[in-house]
Amino acid sequence: MSHENHQLGPQENSPDVQQLKEAFGLFSRASGELIHAYSDLQKQLATLSAQLEMANLALASQSAQRASLAERLALLLDALPAGVVELAADGTVLRQNPAAQDMAGADWTGLDWAQVSAAMTPADVGDAWLLPSGAAPREVIVEQRPLPDGSTIVLLHDISRQQALARQLADQERLVAMGQMAASLAHQLRTPLATAMLYTANLAREPLGREDRERFAGKALDRLRQLEGLIRDTLGYVRGEAFELHDVAVADVLDEVEHAVLAGARARAVTFACRQDTGVTRVRADARALVSALVSLIENAFAYSSPGSEVSLAVRRGEAGVEFAVSDQGPGVPAEIASRIFEPFFTTRSEGTGLGLAIAARVAQQQGGQLRLDARHAPGACFVLSLPLADD
């Protein structure tokens, strides 16, 4: 036995055996490291799996929320009273909500929007359009909103009912105005008519000298002329006028106005003066209507002016165009009636018709301007009629 042990000792210490031991050690360490790495990978995989599961759950929740939101938006779109039309980038109608289909009375899906819009015609109100729909067209406001993807959303607002109600209200207001006008006209006619009847009754008295007869006849004629003027002004106010607007020379307007009012100024011993800024030469207006309105304002100023005072017409450049300012040195307009002076038939003079300012205000308004009382002017009153400047 001792002999055999003596033979194995050198083999265990041989280089080959030593290398095997070292290799086995390396393998053992590598195996340990692999096992440790595998354990780490398993832990990381478990963490990633948990994170992935959480992400999937969040994604599913978001998807469900988006689906719910899309469903709610679809329900809201269907419930909207306004019409909604979706257009593709090439203008093809992709879909429309029930309100749009109700307005159209047809399904536009697949049609070219240019073809659809070509069938619409401008309405009488602002930016509204008449949309063919069954027996009666709809009045709609059309708005377009482009989307980032190139598509377009078209919104249709049906204002047919609002416009019908507005027209009914306007009709009722006209009826009320007609009733008020008839009552005011009857009141205005009563005084000159009663006076004329009184004077004509005096003509039948006996004995009546020639001088008295001529005096009564003249006064009766004056009252009848007042009646005729009242009826003429009333008809002019009720009918209105169609104005023809042109570029008018301000100097020509002032010449006509001055020629028309000088006799009245002399009769009342009032000085009349015209003043024109050098930078204002032309105005956009109907010359005849403008002259008539200015003469009416000036004669109104004469009626409230004392002998020796001055009535002036000043033409100047205003914020919105040309201003024609008629000023007097009379008592002015009391604050308590200032809000009513442009009402038809409102007057503080027994011989007035109450239509002069109302007609002048309408003339200004229908020519794109306005008539206002300048409350800052004192003493007296100042009425400012403004109109647009002439085109360059």
List the helices and strands and how they pair.
Layout: H1 2-12, H2 15-79, E1 83-87, E2 93-96, H3 98-104, H4 113-118, E3 121-122, E4 129-131, E5 138-146, E6 152-158, H5 160-203, H6 210-239, E7 246-249, H7 250-267, E8 271-276, E9 282-285, H8 287-303, E10 310-317, E11 322-327, H9 356-366, E12 370-373, E13 382-387
Parallel strand pairs: 8-10
Antiparallel strand pairs: 1-2, 1-6, 3-4, 4-5, 5-6, 7-9, 10-11, 11-13, 12-13
Kindly summarize this structure in a few lines.
The protein has 392 residues and is an alpha+beta fold.
Number of helices: 9
> Cα-atom Rg, whole angstroms?
47 Å
Beta percentage is: 15-25%
Q: How many structural units, i.e. domains? A: 4
User: Could you report the average pLDDT, rounded to the nearest whole number?
Assistant: 83
Strand-pairing-aware structural class: alpha+beta
Query: Given this structure, which CATH class of the largest domain is correct?
Result: Alpha Beta
Would you list the SSEs in sequence order as H and E?
HHEEHHEEEEHHEHEEHEEHEE
Largest sheet: 6 strands, antiparallel
**Residue runs with pLDDT of under 50 for 5 or more positions:** 1-8
For this structure, what is the CATH homologous superfamily of the largest domain? Histidine kinase-like ATPase, C-terminal domain
| Shape designation | elongated
State the share of residues found in helices, binned by percent: 40-55%
